[in-house]
Specification:
The complex is a heterodimer.
Chain A lengths: L3 E4 L2 E4 L5 E7 L12 E6 L6 E5 L3 E2 L7 E6 L2 E6 L8 E7 L6 E2 L3 E5 L1
Parallel strand pairs in A: 2-11
Antiparallel strand pairs in A: 1-3, 3-8, 4-5, 4-9, 5-6, 7-8, 9-10, 9-11
Chain B lengths: L2 E4 L3 E3 L5 E8 L7 E7 L6 E7 L4 E4 L7 E6 L4 E6 L8 E9 L2 E5 L3 E5 L2
Parallel strand pairs in B: 2-11
Antiparallel strand pairs in B: 1-3, 3-8, 4-5, 4-9, 5-6, 7-8, 9-10, 9-11
The chains are: A mainly beta, B mainly beta.
Chain lengths: 112, 117
């Protein structure tokens, strides 16, 4: 299985400030078509996960542009340009290049 | 509006079986992949498997192969997750999710399964 490793696992943030989460895979997520099969989900407290970013850098419908996904190969990053209070929750990266699709451990983002 | 509505919470005894349902609304049920994700209380997300209702193409995680069965009834836009020989360690929240094979756009509300003697 492809192993996904996120850091940090806990991220206290200040509203209005930027935040960044790293996700690494133990093998490249680049497909021959040029796409990286890496998604980001946010699970807000008490809610189901919601898709933020797919194919490494494409924002899902309705996702604010303060969320930006980037990266290549085995290293990926989710950046929030200016954190808002509603952004708290657990962020998961997920690879879908190979089955079984696998998630990172999650990064808990909370307000300082 | 796309919605996935899952069946309600369940309490089962060890060794029993269970079938959870997930009904899709507002989209072409046969044309989107449906997957199942497990979340043990307080823990992360685990991908269990995925199915394309249009042709019943199904893939399982090796961690769950033989322990669960994913199925669907296109006529009523409903997917199912069957869990067999339940153990206490199967106590978890089970989510269905729909979308492309490579990412899930839509998620159900989750079904809490508690296994206890």
């Amino acid at each position: 299985d492809v192993v996904m490793t996120q850091s940090p696992l806990s991220l206290p943030v200040t509203p209005g400030e930027p935040a960044s989460i790293s996700c690494r895979s133990n093998q490249s997520l680049l497909q021959s078509n040029g796409y990286h099969y890496l998604n980001w989900y946010l699970q807000k407290p008490g809610q189901s996960p919601q898709l933020l970013i797919f194919l490494s850098s494409d924002r899902a419908s309705g996702v604010p542009d303060r969320f930006r996904g980037s990266g290549s190969g085995t290293d990926f990053t989710l950046k929030i340009s200016r954190v808002e209070a509603e952004d708290v929750g657990i962020y998961y990266c997920m690879q879908t290049l190979q089955t079984p699709h696998t998630f990172g451990q999650g990064t808990k983002v909370e307000i300082k | 509006e796309v919605q996935l509505v899952q069946s309600g919470p369940e309490v089962k005894k060890p060794g029993e079986s269970l079938k959870i349902s997930c009904k899709g609304f507002g989209y072409d049920f046969s044309g989107y992949w449906i997957g199942w994700v497990r979340q043990v209380p307080g823990k992360g997300l685990e991908w269990m498997g995925i199915m394309y209702p249009g042709d019943s193409d199904t893939r399982y995680s090796p961690s769950f192969q033989g322990l669960v069965t994913i199925s669907a009834d296109k006529s009523i836009s409903t997917a199912y997750l069957q869990l067999s020989s339940l153990k206490a360690s199967d106590t978890a929240l089970y989510y269905c999710a729909a979308g492309d094979f490579y990412y899930f756009d839509y998620w159900g509300q989750g079904t809490l399964v508690t296994v206890s003697s």
